[in-house]
Every structure is written in C-alpha cells, then in structure tokens.
C-alpha cells in the first residue's frame, strides 16, 4: 500500500470514531435526563400551574405543593428558579435541570407573582394586569 492510501484510511477512521463518540455522548445526556423523569414532571407541573392561573381572579393567592419537583431539582444539582412566570408573554416555565425546561401558556389576563417558600411551597399571587 502506498502512503497516501494509508493516510486516507487513517483520516476516515478518525472521522468515524469522532462521529460515534459525539453520538454516544449525546445519547448519554438524553438518557440521564430522561431517566430522572425531569421532563415529565416539568410538563405536568407547568400545565397544572397554568390551569390554576386560568381559573384565578385578581386578588387570589394560591399555595401549591411542589415538594416533589423541588427535590428532583436539587437531586439534579439545579440551583436556579424552578418556576418562572413571564407575565408579558403569559408563559410559565418549569425547569428541573440546566437547560430549557418546559414552557406552557396561560390565557387569563392577570399579573402573577410567584415565589417558593419552605422548600416546596409555591405561592402564586394573582393581581390585575
């Protein structure tokens, strides 16, 4: 075999190995995220909070137990805000890991202040927009 053919073979093998490594790392991150059931809980809680806000009237205050997702977020070493409310776009985002989280719209035209107290109690203060 000549040197040029050996060089092309080596470059092809290295390229293939890099591609396989990237795919395996991607699958590893997907499986670890899905294995924690974080995406499922993000979706469930975002929709439940949206339902509560859609039924609310200005002046109401909700206390929701989010102890389960608080523990999941801490287990995943997520230290950010678990529940984010975007009052401009009427959007709720629940994040239990670093990343995008799950966002869901609410339709009620109110201003919502959200805070977490006692490591697992979400307080939603509904105000007029």
Low-confidence stretches: none
Determine the number of helices (DSSP H or I, runs of at least 4 residues).
3
Helix content: 40-55%
Broad shape = elongated
Class from helix and strand fractions: alpha+beta
Straight-line N-to-C gap: 77 Å
The share of residues in extended strands comes to 25-35%
Radius of gyration: 22 Å
Largest sheet geometry: 3 strands, antiparallel
Kindly give the count of domains. Answer: 2
Count of strand segments:
6
Mean pLDDT across the residues is 89
SSE string: HHEHEEEEE
Arrangement of strands in the largest sheet: 1-6-5
Topology overview:
Blueprint (H helix, E strand, L loop, with lengths): L2 H33 L2 H18 L5 E5 L1 H9 L7 E4 L4 E4 L7 E4 L4 E8 L3 E8 L1
Antiparallel strand pairs: 1-6, 2-3, 3-4, 5-6
Task: Walk me through the structure.
This protein is α+β, with helices and mostly antiparallel strands and 129 residues long. It has two domains: 1-35; 38-128, no CATH class. It contains three helices and six strands. The strands form two sheets. Strands 1-6-5 form a three-stranded antiparallel sheet, covered by helices on one side. Strands 2-3-4 form a three-stranded antiparallel sheet. A hairpin with a 3-residue loop joins strand 5 and strand 6. The termini are far apart.
